[in-house]
Amino acid sequence: MSEFETEPADILGRLRELREADAPTHGGHVLSYVYDSGMAELDELAAAAVRIVQPVNGLDPTTFTSVAVLEREVLGFVRGILHGDTDVVGSVTTGGTESCLLAVKTARDNWRKRGGTGQPRLLAPVTVHAAFQKAAHYFGLELDLVSVDPSTGAVEADALTARLGPDVALVVVSAPSYPFAGLDPVEEVAAAALAAGIDCHVDACIGGLVLPFWAGLRPWDFAVPGVTSISADLHKFGYSPKGASVLLQRDRDRQRTQYFATTRWPGYPVVNPTILGSKSAGSLAASWAIIHALGVDGFARLAASCERSTSALIATISGIEGLRIVGSPVGPLIAVTSDDSVPADRQIDPHHWADQVRSHGWLLQLQPSITQDNGTRLPRTTHLTITPVTEGVLAELTAALAAAADEVRGVPPVNPADVLGSLPPLGSGALDSETAFGLLTAMGLGAGGGLPERMAPLLAIMEGLPAPVAERLLTELLARLVEPLA
Ligand SMILES: *Cc1c(COP(=O)(O)O)cnc(C)c1O
What CA–CA distance (Å, rounded) separates 125 from 120? Predict the structure, then answer.
């Protein structure tokens, strides 16, 4: 008789079984979400580091002094590759979203300290990561999203700098942006922000640990005067398990505003640089171990592999009739759309293509078309993130991309009206949970969880519905996934 209700071997057996149904996290067949160095021994090292700090509470580096050492060394490494001086300080956070949230909160509070009153504005290109929409929502900033060129996804520096003003608490540029892999005009925007006394954040969540080793880029990091903060995710091209990112800030006094501190309760003094209280030190320790194992040379070697694979994929996809790469991608990511310079019966809908590539065993990410504030429409695209593991499977991947293209060339995009026409009419009021669930069921997305085999129709529905309705339906879909079974 064991003291457990269920034997550990059975519990772990079930966990392994559940994991079998997941998208594969290794091997390069999933081209988003996972960042595979392709080095099994690096994953082993990370797992061992997590195990060693498993019982630690990362909340208190004075009690668990290892946490301070790990964090200091991780910050030192990232500050070095991002050309930060000794007046650049920072925090390890639990992920890109937390780094972005804290960059916005810090800028808002500094703006208020400088005398800003009323509602502050957050200024960014429309391609800025959704984490900044979340930040504006959480922290009460007005979101001012500047339209980009719909054919390239690039933003004009002037379009951003023209909108700087005394109510702007923070202007954000990306290095590069997630949707189209564009490197925003950091130098121009940071110079204008500096002249106006406005904070400028560079969101390098995805690029932060790979662009420092990319050839031929214009400066985009702390080497640029006027850049006041940078976010860089360790759990992306730092190859760490999820739960680690860095937020670096220029100027100690600016950064201290990031902290929340109170001695005004009857418990222990709470002094937190980040959003969580008690927290794991696992991903911090894993990141720290990976950084020491790879060093600058190791990161450079892995980046070079990404660069070779990315160039090869750009060449392959550019050579496929009916597809087009959006803009000029910087870093190991690509957005692909339909080439409307060829006749319609030779064009390839990027979402049909992604679905078809999936049937060949590779998972690409579908990105919806959206309308910008200036009325122009950004194309629907398919996203690929390239990691070091890609190089070993490049020939297979290339063959799958080309075969899938041949199989869907000329197939017209899903018409949202065709899908939506079969739905019960939508009332004008806010949807309650039952109504939303009923609509999902009518779309074949109800109970039973799991997404359909083909995603193009789902994306078309989302494109065809007003955003608040689409957002409410997706909320219901995700919420129902985790409701305890009756
Ligand atoms: C991934 C990403 C984020 C958000 O990071 P999470 O770690 O997913 O929270 C922010 N900005 C960019 C450019 C990203 O690629």
Answer: 17
Q: What's the gap in Å between 321 CA and the centre of ligand 1?
A: 32
Write down the pLDDT at residue 243.
98
97 C-alpha to ligand 1 centroid (Å): 6
**C-alpha distances out from residue 162 to 190, 193, 322, Å:** 13, 11, 37
Q: Would you place residue 416 in the very low, low, confident or very high pLDDT band (cuts 50, 70, 90)?
A: confident
Q: Is residue 444 part of a domain?
A: yes
379 lines ligand 1 (CB under 6 A): no
Binned at pLDDT 50, 70 and 90, residue 133 comes out as very high
Query: Which domain covers residue 272, as residue numbers?
Result: 48-291
Q: Are 120 and 142 within 8 A, CB to CB?
A: yes
- Of 291, 311, 335, the residue at which a domain comes to its end is 291
Mean pLDDT of all residues in 164-176: 98
